[in-house]
Amino acid sequence: MGKVTGFLEIDRQVAKYEPASDRIRHFREFTIPLEDPEIAKQAARCMDCGIPYCHGPQGCPIHNQIPDWNDLVYNNNWEEAIRNLHSTNNFPEFTGRICPAPCEEACTLNLEDVPVAIKTIEQAIADKAYEMGYVRPYPPAHKTGKRVAVIGSGPAGMAAAQQLGRAGHDVHVFEREAKIGGLMRYGIPDFKMEKHFIDRRIEQMEGEGVTFHTLVNVGVDKTLADLQAEFDAILYCGGSERPRDPAIPGAELDGVHIAMDFLVQQNKRVGKENSIASVAWNNEPIVAGGKHVVVVGGGDTASDCIGTAFRQGAVKVTQLDIRPEPPEKEDKLTVWPFWATKMRTSSSQAEGAIRDFQIATLEFVGEDGKLTHVKCCEVDDKRQPVAGTEFFIRADLAFIAIGFAGPYEDTGLIAELGDRIEMNTDRRGNRSVAANDRDYRTSVDKLYGAGDCRRGQSLVVWAIREGRQAARAIDEALMGETVLPR
């Protein structure tokens, strides 16, 4: 352990942001990184707990060995730090930017509201590794002669492909959009993560022998039967992209959109693609400039809509959340080390959004087929409307960001398979591909499933975990043994 008394002597510091007035004028990342000496000081705050909940199941689904690489950073051993981090996490530059950091919630120092700046340190390690040339292709020493197809190139698909490629298999990734990355590229705005980070990993993986195929919609352009004939195993990582049905009257009005329609288009513009047209999302141009915008939903996707709308020049953005306003501070002794419900303000919300809690969206109201207002009301603690509290909010655009209900079943691979693939349904009606988290096999020959399509909408760290574990299961099934970590 580097500095035994570091947590007593050093204050918590995290990366600062550009002022909101400056950052809303561009789509680039706006975090101001800490200098290396400050990163080392923050790493020195790690207590090296006897039971480090930060990298247990409460804190980190991929089990990053956080105390270990904190100590390595404190001792200026960046090369060993990235080697350690890569042993559990294929893409720390992704998670260091877009993961909500449950590890920090589980940090022992969070009992005093000053957790170790784990996310900031993780991003610094990844960025430093690129700067110093430590991230390079690691092609396998021997090829197995086995061929594996991966459907979907989000974090689960990319993690599985890299692991399988390094195990010596001939891996081919199929993506229906024009570029690799899935919703990590098309759903996450560049102001949260610029996409050249994905491009660098693609270059590394190609150097390791992974082959990428874009604009191939499996189930439409290429059938599963085709893949079964060509490959020894097929891993489906199609994500959970079907929006939850809002059941709000007036949702068909011009101006009412699913959140992902808006985000995908803007990411294609920022990525300088030839067209905003998408296989899965609405291709009608959506622009918030000069408009009053209402965002229905309180999660990360809603925040991404807020930040994107401001950058496009929205006049006013209002966010409606049906949940009660959370407390400013949680009761540590009842929730730690688990993720707590408390007031959190995203960088996008801090750019000027109006946030209304305990508000139900009753109807989208319009004239001549175009949205003009959103009808709302207050709700009680059981989310039931309170009589006499109805009101209207002016709206030229409304985005529905209330989550996802599973993979699309009326198009693509699952539509092709029909009743041949077993699906699970949870108590909320969300659907997912039936496969356990040990062997990841589906009910279809040679077909495995991992990521959000299997576990439901979740975090990027869970997707990476599932991709890595599915890769191990496939390697073991093909070869009879495996050295890939679980």
Automatic annotation (TrEMBL):
Kindly state which keywords UniProt assigns to this record, in alphabetical order. Amino-acid biosynthesis, Glutamate biosynthesis, Oxidoreductase
- Ion transport as UniProt keyword: no
For whether the record's keyword set contains Ribosomal protein, the answer is no
Which Gene3D superfamilies does the record match to this protein?
Answer: Alpha-helical ferredoxin, FAD/NAD(P)-binding domain
Q: What InterPro entries does UniProt report for this protein, alphabetically?
A: DPD_II, FAD/NAD-bd_sf, FAD/NAD-binding_dom, Glut_synth_ssu1, Glutamate_Synthase, Helical_ferredxn
A Pfam family annotated for this UniProt entry? Fer4_20
All residue ranges annotated as the FAD/NAD(P)-binding domain in the record: 147-467
UniProt-listed PANTHER family: GLUTAMATE SYNTHASE [NADPH] SMALL CHAIN
Q: State the name under which the record lists this protein.
A: Glutamate synthase subunit beta
